[in-house]
Amino acid sequence: MISMIVDNTEIVKVKIADMAVLKDNGLIITVGLGSCVGICLYDEISRVGGLAHILLAESQQFKSRDGAVNKAKFADTAIPLLLEKMEKFGGKRSRLRSKIAGGSQLFVFKKTNISVGEKNVETVRRTLKKLNIPVVGEDVGGSHGRTMRLYIDSGRVTISTVGKGEIEI
Q1: 35, 23 Cβ separation under 8 angstroms
Q2: Residue 26 near residue 12 (C-beta atoms within 8 A)
């Protein structure tokens, strides 16, 4: 995570397998959403927002030799961790809404029908449903990369795609 101040606004850039939470003001941005999925959670009452950039769906399949796991890397662990961080900033689970982007299939593998992007999106949706956090906007699938921006003061989420411009979800 990289943080900077521009024109009195905090801008936080979230890298792959990372997350950030802000309150009241600022911008959280992540680039390079291919098969990865960006998950924005927002509580409009407390104006707490968070963004996670997950790389893979499920953590159980990937254990390091020392047993350590980067929880921000996986959908099934990153979303609960993001929720926990947001609650520390005053966010309430019952008020959270989510927006998701990414899950593209940038490469086709001839020996398998499994799309990493599709699996990531499915696991994100299932995890959010399990936590009773509704998905209120999304831009997923396809074969292109995306940049996702979460504006903390309003909860607005924009998606930029090369050659396609910018949309709000």
Answers
A1: no
A2: yes
Tell me what the pLDDT averaged over the chain comes to. 92
Cβ neighbours of residue 105 closer than 8 Å, sequence gap 6 or more: 35, 115, 116, 117, 118, 141, 142, 143
Contact of 162 with 151, CB cutoff 8 Å: no
For the question of residue 36 being annotated catalytic, the response is: yes
pTM score, two decimals?
A: 0.91
Domains of the chain with bracketed CATH: 2-168 (3.30.1330.200)
Task: Write the pLDDT tens digit of every residue in 103-149.
Answer: 998 666 555 567 899 999 999 999 999 999 999 999 999 999 999 99
Confidence band of 65 (pLDDT split at 50, 70, 90): low
19, 36, 52, 54: which is the annotated catalytic residue?
36
Which residue, chain included where needed, has tokens 């953590």?
59
